[in-house]
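To whoever picks this up:

The nightly regression suite flagged ABC transporter ATP-binding protein as changed. Nothing in the input moved, so I suspect the structure step. Input below, exactly as stored in the fixture:
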Amino acid sequence: MADVEPIERPAKLQLPLLAASGLIKSFGGLVAIDHASIEVAKGSITGLIGPNGAGKTTLFNLLSNFIHPDKGRVLFDGEPIHQLQSYQIAQRGMIRTFQVARVLSRLSVLENMLLATQHQTGENFWLTWFKQKQITAEERQQREQAMTILESIGLAHMAHEYAGALSGGQRKLLEIGRALMSQPKLILLDEPAAGVNPTLIKQICDRILTWNREGLTFLIIEHNMDVIMSLCDRVWVLAEGRNLAVGTPTEIQTNAQVLEAYLGQ
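Regenerated output under the current build:
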C-alpha cells in the first residue's frame, strides 16, 4: 500500500454522528467488551484498530445491534438505538459490512444491488394493485441508481454476471455498493482490504475518499495500517475489549502503549 499517500484534510469539529459509551458484553465468563466507548464525527473517516481478539468486530456487532450489549448505550444522530432491531438501525441510515463479503452468488450483480433498496412501494402487496405506475417508475430509478453506483466502483461491466463469479475484492466492492443503495448516513466497514489485491485496495480507498468528500461518514476496522493511516481523521485503539488510545493517525503511530500492545514493540 505504499502507493496510497496520506491525505491532509482539515479537522471536522462537528457533534458525533455515532456515540457509544460504557458498552459491556460478556459471553459466559469471558468479558469481550469492557466499558468501551467510541465516537464518530459526522463527515469523518474514523478508524478502529487493535490486535487480534481485541473485540473490534464484537464492538461493531454491538453498535449495529447484531448482538445486544449487557450494559451501555449507543446514540446515532442524537437518538438512542441500542434497543432497536438491526433492520431498524439500517432504516435510520447506519449500514455495516462484514469481514467476509456476503453476496447472493446465484443472483446477478445488479440483482444483488437492487435487493438492498429500502422502502420500496412494491414491498406492500396491496399497493402493487393500485400504484403500478409508481412502482414501475421507482424500479426504473433504482436500476439507474444501481448502475451509477456499479459504474463508480468499476463493476458496471459485470452487472449481469452472477455475483458468485466475482473475486474477493470485487465482492467487497459490491457489498459497499449495496450499502450505498440505501443512501446511508454512516457505513461501518469491517476489514474492507482483507484478502484484496493491492490494485483493488487502492480503488477501494479512492472510492471511500470520494464518497467521504460527498458527505458520507465511515467507521472502519482494518489490519492494513497503511489503509488506516492514509484514510482516517481519527483512530480509536481497542485492546482486550477496552479503550487503549484515541487520536490522529500521527498520534497513534507514536503512542507508546499502542506500539507495545498492537505493534508488539
